[in-house]
Amino acid sequence: MTSIVTSPLKMQSTTLRWIREDCSIGFVPTMGCLHEGHLSLIREAKKRSDKVVVSIFVNPLQFGKNEDLSTYPRPFERDVELCREAGIDVIFHPSAKELYPRGFQTSINGGELTKMYCGKTRPIHFNGMLTVVSMLFDIVNPTFAFFGEKDFQQLFLIKQMCRDFHKPVEIVGMPIVREASGLAMSSRNTYLSEVQREQATCLYRAIERVKNEVKKGNPNTRDLIATARNLVAQTPGMQVDYVHLVSGKTLLPFGDRAIGPARLLLAAFIGQTPKVRLIDNAAIPF
Ligand code: PAF
Description:
This protein is α/β, with parallel strands linked by helices and 286 residues long. The chain has ten helices and nine strands. The strands form two sheets. The protein has a six-stranded parallel sheet with strand order 1-4-3-2-5-6, sandwiched between helices. It has a three-stranded antiparallel sheet with strand order 7-8-9, with helices on one face. The mean pLDDT is 97. The protein binds pantoate.
């Protein structure tokens, strides 16, 4: 039976009871509008844990003033149905009022990396995201928490926070789930028209092109970045936000040559009003 809990205190007392009963807890934090990417996290959480909690909370702290907080898709009934079918124990669905006590002041600062890449266009996003994830961890007390690799910078920052704050939770990163076209699954894909969905596949095509170039023996990171950038820029309707080739270990950019595991990070805008921002990434085997 899947129950819906809105009170942080009730959620916390439930998970503390589970811990006393020696149950492991798998946690999948989401903003709802669940898709196959989320379901892959839920399946893994079910496999590894005795109890599974999915949170559905569109976190105001991680949206900038001109972003899509008010229009973010919230098909709650459908999400509940999907969680029920997946056999989730609890859906944690607090209101912002319940989660952020009156006079709420405290926040997490993830440092320099929160200002880079996605942080350049979304300067408050990552600290707002880390603040809610830290709070959710304190409420849900997870043994494991599951995040998609699609938000690779987010995943990196969450691991960094857990290391820095000695959080007793194992962070599990799961592979990107793609549509047959290659488009990475995202709740924000619901904003796209059929034509835009096709145009948006240029991010995946850019990744594949870079992988091919590396396979052919071109190791120059600047060439590879230019290749990906041009492919996206030349696609009608698309506007590049950034393309970076970074270390998978530190998330910092390489010089001319990649050393160790590499990750290609891409972000682009599609459409005019409203402009939708899409991200994608992949490991690049040099
Ligand atoms: O990736 C998301 O959906 C959100 O950033 C998260 C981790 C649920 C925090 O609000």
